[in-house]
C-alpha cells in the first residue's frame, strides 16, 4: 500500500506532481514546466499587480494560522458537533464501510494531501504561462474569499471532524499517512470543519478551470474536485453538512472572484443586467 511517511515526503510528492500536471497541461514538453516557473518569477519581479495579488493570498494564509492560535486561546468555546450529528447520524460511518479498501485509502489520501495543493499551485502556473491573467487574478481573489468567509466559522462555529466525534468512523488517513497528526494537523485544527475548505477550494479551482482554454486542465480539475469531495467522507474527515457548506462557498467564491477580476462586482453586474432587460423590454 502507498504510504506518505512525513510532510517532507508529501512536499516532494507535491513538487513532482506539479511538474507532471504542468507537463500534460503545457503541450507535453519536458521543459515547459520550467518555463512556467520562470515566467512566474519574471511576473513576480516585473508586475506590481501580479505581486500584490500573490501577497494577498499569502496574507490570508497567515491569518488562517493566526485563527488557530486565537481559537486555542479562547476561553468560551462552543461545540456545534452534536447538532451536526443530530442532523446526519451515521451517514459518514455507513459511507466509509461501504467503500473501505486498502488501495482506495492510498489513492484518496494522495488526492487529499497531494493533489489538493497541486490544484491551486498548478492553476496559478498554467494561467501565468498562458498569460491568462484574468483567470490568474480570479484564482487569487477566490482563495482570499474562501478563507475570509471560512475563518469566522472556524472561530465561532467550531465543528469537530467526524472521526474524532463518532466512534463508528475510522480515521483512514492514518493508514496511508501515519504521521498526519504530527505533520499535517498544525495546518488545520481538529474543529476547523465547517465549511470544508477541501471542498470549497476544489470546487473553486474546478469552476475557474472550466473557463480556461487548456483542454487537459479543464477536465482534470473538475475530476480531481469530485475525487477530493469523495475522499473527505471516505477518510472520515468531514460531515455531509461541511461538504454542502463548502460547495456553496466554492460556487460563490468562484463567481465573485471572476467578477472582481473583470473589474465588476455582483451589484454592478446585477444593475447592468437589469438595465439590459429594461432596454430590451
Q: What descriptive keywords fit this protein?
A:
globular, mainly alpha, 281 residues, 14 helices, disordered C terminus
What does this structure look like?
Keywords: Membrane, Transmembrane, Transmembrane helix. The N and C termini lie far apart (64 Å). Helix 11 packs antiparallel against helix 12. The model is unreliable at 265-281 (pLDDT under 50). The chain has helices at residues 7-25, 32-46, 48-73, 81-88, 91-99, 102-129, 133-156, 162-165, 173-176, 180-183, 197-209, 215-234, 240-261, 266-280. With 281 residues, the protein is mainly alpha-helical. It has one domain (7-280). The protein is globular.
Topology, pairings included?
Blueprint: H1 7-25, H2 32-46, H3 48-73, H4 81-88, H5 91-99, H6 102-129, H7 133-156, H8 162-165, H9 173-176, H10 180-183, H11 197-209, H12 215-234, H13 240-261, H14 266-280
Helix pairs in contact: 1-2, 1-6, 2-3, 2-6, 3-7, 6-7, 6-11, 6-12, 7-11, 7-13, 11-12, 11-13
> Which overall shape is indicated by the principal axes computed on the Cα atoms?
globular
Low-confidence stretches: 265-281
- The overall pLDDT average reads 90
Rg over CA atoms, rounded to whole Å, is 20 Å
| Helical amount | over 70%
Strand coverage percent: under 5%
| Structural class determined from secondary elements | mainly alpha
How many domains make up the coordinates?
Answer: 1
| Total helical segments | 14
Secondary-structure element pattern, one letter each: HHHHHHHHHHHHHH
| Assembly level | single chain
For the termini, the CA-CA separation is 64 Å
Number of strands: 0
Largest sheet composition: none
GO cellular component, one term: membrane
Keywords: Membrane, Transmembrane, Transmembrane helix
InterPro entries: Aur1/Ipt1, PAP2/HPO_sf
Organism: Paenibacillus ginsengarvi
Amino acid at each position: 500500500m502507498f504510504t506518505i511517511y512525513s510532510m517532507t515526503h508529501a512536499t516532494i510528492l507535491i513538487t513532482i506532481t506539479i511538474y507532471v500536471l504542468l507537463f500534460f497541461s503545457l503541450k507535453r514538453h519536458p521543459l515547459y514546466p520550467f518555463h512556467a516557473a520562470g515566467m512566474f518569477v519574471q511576473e513576480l519581479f516585473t508586475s506590481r499587480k501580479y505581486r500584490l495579488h500573490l501577497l494577498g493570498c499569502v496574507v490570508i494564509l497567515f491569518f488562517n494560522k493566526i485563527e488557530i492560535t486565537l481559537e486555542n486561546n479562547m476561553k468560551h468555546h462552543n461545540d456545534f458537533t452534536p447538532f451536526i450529528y443530530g442532523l446526519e447520524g451515521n451517514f459518514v460511518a455507513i459511507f466509509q464501510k461501504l467503500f473501505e479498501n486498502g488501495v482506495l485509502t492510498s489513492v484518496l489520501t494522495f488526492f487529499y494531501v497531494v493533489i489538493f495543493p497541486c490544484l491551486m499551485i498548478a492553476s496559478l502556473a498554467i494561467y501565468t504561462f498562458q498569460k491568462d491573467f484574468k483567470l490568474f487574478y480570479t484564482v487569487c481573489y477566490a482563495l482570499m474569499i474562501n478563507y475570509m468567509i471560512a475563518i469566522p466559522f472556524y472561530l465561532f462555529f467550531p465543528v469537530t471532524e467526524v472521526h474524532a466525534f463518532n466512534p463508528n468512523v475510522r480515521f483512514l488517513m492514518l493508514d496511508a499517512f501515519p504521521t498526519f497528526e504530527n505533520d499535517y494537523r498544525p495546518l488545520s485544527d481538529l474543529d476547523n470543519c465547517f465549511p470544508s475548505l477541501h471542498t470549497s477550494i476544489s470546487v473553486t479551482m474546478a469552476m475557474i478551470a472550466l473557463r480556461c482554454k487548456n483542454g487537459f486542465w479543464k477536465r482534470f480539475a473538475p475530476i480531481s474536485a469530485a475525487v477530493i469531495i469523495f475522499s473527505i467522507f471516505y477518510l472520515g474527515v468531514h460531515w455531509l453538512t461541511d461538504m454542502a457548506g463548502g460547495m456553496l462557498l466554492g460556487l460563490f467564491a468562484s463567481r465573485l472572484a471572476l467578477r472582481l477580476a473583470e473589474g465588476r462586482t455582483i451589484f454592478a453586474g446585477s444593475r447592468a443586467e437589469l438595465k439590459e432587460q429594461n432596454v430590451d423590454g
